[in-house]
TrEMBL record:
InterPro entries: MrpF/PhaF-like. Signal peptide: none annotated. The keyword Transport applies. Its main location: membrane. The chain crosses the membrane at residues 6-23, 35-55, 61-80. One of its GO terms (cellular component) is plasma membrane. This is Multiple resistance and pH regulation protein F (MrpF / PhaF).
Amino acid sequence: MAQEGFLVAGIWILLGTALMAMYRVIAGPTLPDRVVGLNTITTKIVGILTILAILWREYYLIDMAIVLLMVNSIGGLILAKHMERRGND
């Protein structure tokens, strides 16, 4: 019972810090700042999905979190490659 309270508090903390990272995505000032902010938000969403999977005993959410992490990793690599090429021109 008390553990559920800690997990719910963890969700609220992750949501709050994701909102703080949202400022970095919106305000910038550079593209790398926005990419890092977006990766941070995605990682926090994965944490929230994992906590919800434990709370609700819906373990398919963990599979969704793993897929989201893979997409986030590939997207980060693609954006890094794009920024690297753009910087060399």
